[in-house]
Known about the structure:
By secondary structure, this protein is α/β, with parallel strands linked by helices. It contains 3 helices and 3 strands, in the order E-H-E-H-H-E. Strand 1, helix 1 and strand 2 (45-52) form a beta-alpha-beta unit.
Amino acid sequence: MADLINTSSxxxxxxxxxxxxxxxxxxxxxxxxxxxxxxxxxxxxxxxxIEPGLLDTELQNHVGSDEVRTALEGAKQLLEWLTPQDIxxxxxxxxxxxxxxxxxxxTVMPTGQPA
Length: 115
């Protein structure tokens, strides 16, 4: 048995102005994961995709739009974002499940993030 756990984003399921490329690449990862699960499940490979919400990483340092960067900073003031440790613990949980259990898609959100 093996596990393939991909990381995507809630952006994969959303329409976000100024995030078309980011959302599109994350949608690809999520869709690829669903297809790989269909192909590899019979070979005893569990495929999962984790789609986090607001996550405190270096990504915000690479946003080209001042407007979006300001909005993200404002969101940090309003609620506590997920940490990389939160996602690592989610990966550990998914991989620790019995071999008969597969969680194909996991959405992990900060408690205060509405959508």
